[in-house]
Amino acid sequence: QVQLVESGGGLVQPGGSLRLSCAASAIFFRMYTMGWYRQAPGKERELVATISGGSGSRANYTDSVKGRFTISRDNAKKTAYLQMANLKPEDTAVYYCNAARGINQDYWGQGTQVTVSS
User: Fold this and answer.
1) End-to-end CA distance of the chain
2) What is the phi/psi pair of residue 85, to 5°?
3) Contacts for 24 with CB less than 8 Å, ≥ 6 apart
4) Which helix (H) or strand (E) holds 118?
5) What is residue 77's DSSP assignment?
6) Are 31 and 43 in contact (CB under 8 A)?
7) How confident is the model at residue 43, as a pLDDT?
8) Number of neighbouring beta carbons within 10 Å of residue 1
9) Percent of the chain with pLDDT over 70
10) Which of 1, 22, 85, 114 could share a disulfide with 80, CB 3.0–4.6 Å?
11) pLDDT at 34 over 90
12) Ranges assigned E (strand) in 2-109
């Protein structure tokens, strides 16, 4: 049974940092594109960042987080990360981890809450 388990969320002040982790099990991790999405109250889920499978040589970010967030992966640990810096109140959302490979291999974690507030 495939599982993606996020951790690292919490409450942080504006300008602060957090690192989210997504631990995967029961998948051939290195073959999957890993992504982070977020959903704020009353809004649709949006893509935050993705990293390619294998060595993770390709990373993409939504414009609002470029220069502040960094996605990475450790294939040996089957874990993806999202390092978030200079956090803003508008980054407040539930953050979800995604593992994707083709049409029928698409998995989601349960989400972790990130709240940016003073």
Assistant:
1) 40
2) -125, 165
3) 2, 3, 4, 32, 78, 79, 80, 99
4) none
5) T
6) no
7) 96
8) 4
9) 100
10) 22
11) yes
12) 3-7, 10-12, 18-25, 33-39, 46-51, 59-61, 69-74, 79-84, 93-100, 106-108
Secondary structure letter of residue 59 according to DSSP: E
DSSP state of 38: E
∠ CA 103-106-108, rounded to 5°: 160
Task: Give the pLDDT confidence score for residue 54 in this predicted structure.
Answer: 87
Q: Is the pLDDT score of 26 beyond 90? A: no
Q: Within a 13 Å sphere around the CA of 68, how many CA atoms are in the beta-carbon half?
A: 16
Residue 63, classed as helix, strand or coil, is helix
Q: Residue 80 and residue 90: Cα distance in Å, rounded?
A: 23
> How confident is the model at residue 104, as a pLDDT?
85
Total Cβ atoms within 10 A of residue 28: 12
What average pLDDT score do residues 33-40 get? 97
Q: Note the pLDDT of residue 103.
A: 81
